[in-house]
Amino acid sequence: MTSVLKRFGFALGPWLQRRIVDPLLQILRRGAEPKQLAFSGALGITLGVFPICGVTVFLCGMAIAVLGSFCHAPTVMLTNFIATPVELSLVVPFLRFGEFIAGGPHFPLTSDAFKKVLTGQASREVLQSIFHALLGWVVAAPFILGTLYILLLPCFKILVRKFSTNPSSPKKPLHSITEVKLKVRDV
Q1: Which of 10, 75, 153, 172 is most buried, by CB atoms within 10 Å?
Q2: For the whole model, what pTM was predicted?
Q3: What is the largest CA-CA distance in the chain?
C-alpha cells in the first residue's frame, strides 16, 4: 500500500510542479502588478466555480476579451484550472442556495432521481435545478470575487516582491532634464 502512495505522491509532485508552480513562477517573474494579479486570480476562481461543467474556459475567455488590460490572462486561466476540483464540490451548495433564494422545490439527489434524469422523465425538474444552481452562483459570485481579491492581494504582493526579476527602479525627480535626440534624414 505504501508503494502505491509513494508512486501516487511521486507522480503528483512533478505534475503539480509542471502545471501549477512553474506557470505561476513565470507569471510572477514577468513583473505584473499585484493588484492586477489578485483581481485576475479572484476572477479566474470565481468563474472557475461556475456550476455548469465545461463552460468555465469560455467564460474566462469572454472575461479576458471584455476586460482586456484590466486582467492578466495567464493568471485568469491558471486559477480557472486550479478551481476545477472546487467547481465540482460547489455544484450542490449552489443548487441548494438557489433553491433557497427562489423558494423553489428541493431537487432530490438520489439514485432514483438520477435514473429519471437518464431516462428523460425529469426534464423539467432538471432544468429547474440548473436554473437554481445558476441563481445561487450569480448571487454568490460578487462575494466570492471580493473575498478572494482581499485574500489574494497580500499574497501576490509578497510573491511579486520575492520572485519578480524586474528590479524596482528608483523614483526620478520631477525636475530632471531628459535628453532628447532627434535624427534628421537627408532628403
Answers
A1: 75
A2: 0.74
A3: 86
